[in-house]
Amino acid sequence: MIATRGFCSILLCMIPSSSQFLENMWKMDTCGPPQIQNTMMNQTKYPGEPAYFKCQIDMSKCMVAFIDWYYIRINGSEREKIKSARRGDPHTHVIQSVDQDHEGLYTCVVGNVLGQAEASAYLSVTSGSSQCATHYQGLLLSSLAVLLSVHLATRLITAGHRVRGVAGKV
Questions:
Q1: pLDDT digit of tens for each residue in the chain (170 aa)?
Q2: Whole-prediction pTM value?
C-alpha cells in the first residue's frame, strides 16, 4: 500500500488539479474529419475540350486515408468510382477531351477514421461546334454585319444626295 500511495502522490504532483487537466484537454487541437478547402465549380465544355476538377484538402492537422472520385451520369445511374488516390494526382481529376458521355456529376470524397467530406461539380457538354469555331463564326457574323451596315449607309447617303439633288433642281 505504501508503494501505491507513493505512486499516487507522484501522479498528483504531475497533475496540479483535475479541473485544470480537463480544461487543457478541451483546448488541445485534435485531428478531426477531413476538410475540403475549395468549392468545385460547375463547368460547361464543348466536345474535345479538356475539363479539370480540383479537390484541395486541408492536411495541416491530419492526413486522410482515402481520396476517391465518383461520377453519376445524367440518366441518374448509380454512382460509379472512377479514380482513387493510387493513380495520378489524387487532388485532381482531368478529362483530356470531353464528349457527351462525360456529362454528369463529379464528386471528390475524402476520409479518415473520424469521418469524411465531399465536394461535387456538374460537367455540362454542349452539343455543336467547338468554342474556337463558334468564336470565328461570331467574328464572321460581326464582320458581315459591319459590312452590311457600311453598304446600307453608303446607299442611304448616295440616295440622300440624289434626293437633294433632284429637290434642288425642281
A1: 444 444 444 444 455 566 665 565 555 556 788 999 999 999 999 999 999 999 999 888 788 999 999 999 988 788 889 887 666 788 999 999 999 999 999 999 999 999 999 999 999 999 875 555 555 454 444 443 444 344 434 444 444 444 445 444 54
A2: 0.58
Burial of residue 130 (CB within 10 Å: 0-12, 13-18, 19+) is: middle
128: left (phi over 0), alpha (psi -120 to 50) or beta: left
Q: Per the structure block, which three cell numbers stand in for 32?
A: 478531426
Q: Name the phi and psi angles at 166, rounded to 5.
A: -70, -45
Q: What is the DSSP letter of 14?
A: H
